[in-house]
Structures are given as structure tokens and as C-alpha cells.
Amino acid sequence: MLLGQRNSEATTPSALPLLSARGLRYSSERRQLLNGIDIDLGRGELLTLVGPNGAGKSTLVKILCGVLRPEAGTIERQPGLRSGYVPQRFQIDDNLPLTVRRFLRLQLSPTAGRLDEVVAATRIGHLLERPLQALSGGENRRVLLARALLRDPDLLFLDEPAAGLDVNGQAELYELIQTVRRQWGCGILVVSHDLHLVMAASDEVICLSDGRISCRGEPASVREHPEYRALFGHHVAPGIGVYTHGGHRH
Amino acid sequence: MDSFLLRALIAGLGLALLAGPLGSFVVWRRMAYFGDTLAHSALLGVALAFLLHLDLNLGVVAVCLLLAVAVVVLRATQRLADDTLLGILSHSALSLGLVALAFVQGLRVDLMAYLFGDILAVSDADLVWIFGGGALVLALLASIWRPLLLVTLNEELARAEGVPMIRTQLLFMISMAIVIAVAMKIVGVLLVTSLLIIPAATARAFSRTPEQMAGRAAAVGALAVLLGLAASFAWDLPSGPAIVVAAALQFLGVAAVRPLLGRRSRRPP
């Protein structure tokens, strides 16, 4: 088993969501970024957030994981909820000497076994002694994911986790996300603007455009939605539009 | 050794010890100009302390903290580039300090001593401030070291992981204000940041962890104090600038030999 099982009920999403957001609104000085957003995320659920650049995806994720405070609306979290966050941008001043190993232990105290497990799952063993600044884009994503996992999260918020990964790396990453979801029962929200790799395994796909939810549903049905087609239709070639779990062999 | 020279040496070494870890954070957080702005406001603190008959150091700490708050508020409300905002505050605070000092009746201050420091005039009371304030700063920094590192790495990540942001940053600002009050005596308001950032930048070249860099910056700074004071004594130079020149020469020296030591980190193409 790749990752230890934490909850025997992990594979069945429970009736009560871990996080429930209603009527979220947020605006910057210049314009409204989000309006009227409702989202539920339950145990073992995988939710994919898609939308063009500037639709408000990152802002929404930041609000859900507590980085930003919404202007209006409510977020109910189950008590004691822990979340892991992989931010979209992670650049570090060259003058701060910090290895990957140290970063993974900063403010966290994983047991050695736990660290090994997560390091193996995210395949970053060869990076541990490297300075954080000396990582490629894809390595950077995997290290951040490892840190998020080391927090033993109930909810995972991944903002463009596949950015900078090649096609194999992306497929590998989506396998890993699936594993985390199945074996730990995390609720996972993945932001993606790469429509070729929207996961077929998602429980729900939410399309965001201009700060509003324009359509939502299961991956197969949402692709037929007129709003979705209007937004992305010309990019969705048949057969490669959805990454199907199981197509990848190690 | 003359007692004033001994006091100067102890004061300088005490400051270097503080400036190492704090200066490392100033470098990592790219706050050099921010530190400069706080330091420039110190003169205003001196003037206000004279007017209100308060302890000078307390006046400096209080005004530095007020200015830090002003920066945070103005950053959030004004649409100005950071360097423009800090430029406005920095020079306004310095000028306001000079103007306020001129208003204090019957006061003859040695302006040069405040601007460029007068380490040879350090008194026993100053030493108490340096080591008392210094111990407080080191304790504060130790208590927020790891959360502050995480905030420095990525503020959003720190927020998402529940780091108490306001508390952490406030304690950091207080540390900075105390160090500026202490450093003003030694190198003067115009040169305070140099003692924070030059030793830290020098130490960067041969450090592999944050703690190493902080410790080695303290050692490098202490050496700069020793060399600067020795030069000041031998050739009758102004002591504050002599210390800063020594620090700058160390930096240049390390920068010159670093290529010979090999590159410090691999970078992907």
C-alpha cells in the first residue's frame, strides 16, 4: 500500500460535507472577482475547478482554505478540520538557504516513517538535500504537494498542481491524487486550466467564468453543457478531453 | 585599554550579535529599504523624547513602531509602488526629525553623532540598553523563528497553515525597532541598515541553512566591529563609518573569492 489508510470509512463520502460555503463574494479594488459561489466538499470527494485565466479560480481556493476572507457569504468547516494547500506561485528569495528536507520539516514534525512514505509517494527522494531554489517547476509542485500531505490533511487544495509538469508527470500526479483520495479519504479540490487533463474521476467539475459558476456537474455531463462548450468547446477534442484513470502504466 | 574603548567594543560586539539574525531576515524578506525608513524615523523619536522628557531609546522604539504601522496601513490603502511609498516616508521622517530637533528649546545636540553614530561615547547605561534590549530581541526572534521563516517563504502558505500572522509580524517589527534604537548609538541613523544587511549578505556565500547564515552574519559583523574600531583608533577615523567600510570590504573580499570556491547551488537550466 502506497500510503497508510487513516480512516476505514474513507472510500464512502459521508453525508455531511467537511466544508460548506454559501454565497461567497469577493472583490478587489477594481472589480468584482467572485459572486454567489456555493461549494460543498465532502470526505473522499474530488472536485475540479476549471475556467479561463482571470475567472477567479485562485481567489476562490484562497478563500476556501482561509488565506483570504470573503466579503460576504459563509464557510462552515467541521471542527478540527486540517487542510493542505499548494499555492500556484512559490518563489523563494535566492538569499535564503533552505533545503527541501528542512522545508518539509519547518513547522511540521513528521515521524521519520511518515516522511519516507510521503517522499516516496511524491517521488522527491533525490531532491531532499537540494536548495529550494534549485528545483524545476515540476519538482517544485511535487515538493509542495509533499508538504501539504505531511500536514495529514482532511482537505487538500491544489492550485494548478500540474503546472510545469510534462504529460507523464501530469498523469503520475493525477494517479497520486487518486491514491490520496482513496486511501486517506481526503476531500480534494483541484484547480486546472489545462482542459485536456480534467479528470474523469472527478465527482464534480465546476466551471468558473467571470467570478460566477457558469456550469457544474459530473465530468461526462458537464462536457456537454452549452456553457462549458461556449467557454472551452473549441479546445475539447474528442478522446483527449478527459484524462481517464487507468490508462497510465508504470 | 581605555575604558571608553572597551565599552565601545562591548557595545559594537553586542550589536553585531543582534544584527546577524535580524539582518538575515531583512535580507530574506527584502526589507532593506524598509529598515532604512524605520531608521530614518529614529531622529524624530529622539526629538519627541526630548520634548516629552522620556528615555531616548524608548522614544526611538515608539516612533519606529508607529512608522512600521504607517507603512503597513499606507501599503494597504495607497496605490503607490513600494519604493515610492518608502521613499516618501523615509525622507519625510528624517526631515521631520531634523525640524523637530530645531524646535526643542535650548537643546544643543551633536547631530553628527545621531546621523553617523558615536560609539566612543557609549555610556554604561547604553550598555545596559544594548544587552537588555538585545536579550529581549533574541528571545523574541527565537520564539517566532520558524513561523517567521514560513511567512518569509510564502505568506499564503503560512496563512493557510494557520500561522498567527499579525503576532509574528508584530514581534518582528518590535525586534527591528529595538535594534534600530540600539544601533543608532553605534553607527547612526543613516548607517543602521548597513550593519543589518552587509554582514548577512556576506554570510550568505558560505551558509547552507538559515541558522548558519544568521550565526555567521553575527560573526562577520563582530569582525567588522573589531576591524572598524581598530582602524578608527589607529588612524583617528570616525568609528561608525569605519565599521561599515570594514563590513563592505569583507563583503567584497568574499565576493571576490567565491568563484574560486565553486558555485553554491545547482540551478536547472
What distinguishing features does this structure have?
heterodimer, A: 250 residues, alpha/beta, 6-stranded mixed beta sheet, 3-stranded antiparallel beta sheet, B: 269 residues, ABC transporter involved in vitamin B12 uptake, BtuC, globular
In short:
Chain A is of the alpha/beta class and 250 residues long. Chain A has one domain (19-243): Rossmann fold (3-Layer(aba) Sandwich), CATH 3.40.50.300. Chain A is built from seven helices and eleven strands.
Number of helices of chain A: 7
Please give the oligomerization state of what you see.
Answer: heterodimer
Number of domains of chain A: 1
CATH architecture of chain A: 3-Layer(aba) Sandwich
- Indicate the low-confidence ranges of chain A by residue numbers: 4-13, 237-242, 245-250
Number of helices of chain B: 12
For this structure, what is the CATH homologous superfamily of chain A?
P-loop containing nucleotide triphosphate hydrolases
Largest interface: A-B, 30 and 32 residues
Q: Write out the CATH superfamily name of chain B.
A: ABC transporter involved in vitamin B12 uptake, BtuC
Largest sheet descriptor of chain B:
none
* CATH fold title of chain A: Rossmann fold
